[in-house]
Amino acid sequence: MHEPIRTCALVGKFQDPRVAECAQALIPELLARRLTVLVPQDSTSASAPGGVAVTPLPELIERCDLMMAIGGDGTLLYAAGLVAEHDIPLLGINRGRLGFLTDVLPQDMVRSLDAVLAGQCEADRRTLLQARLRAADGQEVQHSALNDVVFNRLETGRMLEFETRIDGRYVNSHGGDGLVVATATGSTAYALSCGGPIIEPRLNVLVVAPISPHTLSDRPIVVPGDSLIEVRLIGQTETCAQVTCDAQMLGELRPGSQLQIATAGRSVTLLHPPGYDFYRLLRSKLHWGVGSVAHER
Fold it and tell me: Based on the domain organization, do 45 and 95 belong to the same domain?
């Protein structure tokens, strides 16, 4: 970051006592460093901690030099959606359960803040996906995602039948509950529970993972990051599926409509404290090496 940070935006579910406690401890530190502190004017504004300026979202985005997400990975994904069109770095403070993306612990947040202000944090640019859902009548909606684009069935007890194409080439006809298309960042989220691999974030690839496939041979695949993935429903005409981007509803995929997924050509900059190690993060979150004689060197 080349410009000095003067204004910081905080994002989180402030009605959550753990998030509120963390924010109340952080805000005096921000103010002591002569930073203006903003929070978005939304449904959480009523429970926003004192010492902050509740600000309409467009103004907040225009003014802030740094965004800090306090909560779990879902909160950071929401914040990533806010800064996706803007070059605003994002720091995640973990008050959730797992925290692959919010990797700063509360006890380290002041130290990490000072590292950010001193320009000592690692800037980690993460690729975004762009999903385009085109209806049979030509109407189109689109949205970006940091983790994944997912489509899955709306009705219980009815299997979806769909086909996939990559860069215009037919790949497979599937039967199952749906499909996950994930970035390397999202490989540790829903795609992982579908049997997909963990991808090192520096790799420019996508994971395509079927959800509860009808046949065991229908396996996740890894494709180049610049691939164009297309999905269409086939089979029964009355079936439909919902499409989400980072768990936010995009629309419904129906017979005759088409879902296209590709990289967005934009990225989000995550800030990591000095000494950040992706493999150490994996060991911590997935409990690798517990009980073994091996030790970290």
Answer: yes
Q: What is the pLDDT of residues 220-244, one digit of tens each?
A: 999 999 999 999 999 766 788 999 9
End-to-end CA, the chain? 31
- Say which DSSP state 104 is in: B
pLDDT at 197: 97
Please tell me whether residues 197 and 225 are part of one structural domain. yes
Between CA 275 and CA 62 the distance in angstroms is 31
Q: What is the pLDDT of residue 279?
A: 93
Give the count of domains, the chain: 2
From 16, 42, 65, 73, active-site residue = 73
Residue 13 main-chain phi, psi, to 5 deg: -85, 85
Buried/exposed code over 187-213 (b: 16+ C-beta within 10 A; e: otherwise): bbbbbbebebbebebeeebbbbbbbeb
The Cα–Cα gap between 171 and 162 comes to: 11
Give the 3-state DSSP-derived string for 115-159, with helices as H, strands as E and coil as C. Answer: HHHCCCCEEEEEEEEEEEEECCCCCEEEEEECCEEEEEECCCCCC
Handedness of CA 211, 263, 121, 115 (dihedral sign): negative
| pTM (2 d.p.) | 0.91
Residue 42 known to be catalytic: no
Domain residues for the domain of 137 are 127-267
Q: What is the mean pLDDT of residues 103-109?
A: 91
Q: What pLDDT digit, counting tens, does each position of 126-160 carry?
A: 999 999 999 988 999 999 999 999 999 887 667 89
Please state whether beta strands 229-233 and 160-166 pair in parallel, antiparallel, or not at all (unpaired): antiparallel
